[in-house]
Model the fold of this input.
Amino acid sequence: MTPETNMKKIASRAASMVLAATVITLASSSAGAFDLTRKEGSFRASWNVSGTIHLMEFKDRGWVAAGRHEGTIILQTDKGQIPTFETECVAFADESQGGVGRCVWESTDGDLIYVETSSSGMGGLGRSRGKFVGGTGRFDGITGGFSFEWNYNVSGWEDASFDGYTLAMTGNYAVP
Done:
């Protein structure tokens, strides 16, 4: 394997770990397509992201990656589709320990949801999951969890750009 091919493979794995360490959340809009009169439920979602990562070789742990990405998510509940939400995430991935991420999702009316994510596998190949850890406004106290799988593309080497989207994303939520 040439050094260029090896670096591309590592960049692809690291970007996947950063993506898998990221999250999905549940939010609603002021347009009224979704209201929280139902305090719990399940959802399916579609999420598109793009961003940048920085790769670096680290001691005996192999490659590590840190990145930031932004995106848009659309959620589907039993009450119907929810308008889009804008996301901002920061993630860290380590070939030997998987990845973690922290995201803030903003609804169209400004309410926020905070999410923690993790990926157990190298290159995002393991189980990717997330947990709602709070919010503001009508999402204050939100709890729940989700799992997801990704498809993604990576461009570059140590400083790379990427874009991706979810293949399967499902979860549940509860609002006090």
Remarks:
- The first strand starts at residue 40 and ends at 58.
- The mean pLDDT is 78.
- The longest helix spans residues 3-20.
- Residues 54 and 159 are 5 Å apart (CA to CA).
